[in-house]
Amino acid sequence: MIDFWDSFLRMASALALVLALIGGLVLLIRRFTGTRLGAPVSTQIVQVLGSGYIGPRKTISLVSVAGELFAVGMTPTELVSLGHIQDRERVQQFLSAATTGRPIATGRQSETRGGHAD
User: How far apart are CA 98 and CA 37, in angstroms?
Assistant: First the structure.
């Protein structure tokens, strides 16, 4: 009977040691790679390109999802798609103007001056 318990304790302690080593190895790998195992390192599927506040705890964001551009409204409880954006060149103009602080040209020339038609 003593041999059974002695063998059982040796087996349980060896199993605990092996599981602890495997857990430590997984933690080290995650720490140095920074991602989950098997996930691509450089590919980001979802990116927030820019955001603007429109009210308390309410924002509108420009989001890139797998290369497609969307305008999204966000509140603390909701996420609402406002539309799909097709014109990538226009988005680049807005983003570059936002980062440099320059005014954004709308692309439409006003036909009125001072509120009166010519």
Answer: 37
Residue type, 82: L
pTM summary value = 0.46
- Are 27 and 68 found together in one domain? no
Examine the domain organization and report whether 27 and 54 are in the same domain. Answer: no
Mind listing the pLDDT tens digit for each residue in 9-18? 999 999 999 9
- Same domain assignment for residues 25 and 55: no
CB atoms within 10 A of CB 62: 20
Q: For the chain, give the longest Cα–Cα distance.
A: 108
Name the residue among 104, 66, 63, 103 with its Cα closest to residue 85: 63
CA dist 27 → 2, 24, 33, 39, 100 (Å): 38, 5, 10, 16, 42
Residues 6+ apart with CB under 8 A from 88: 69
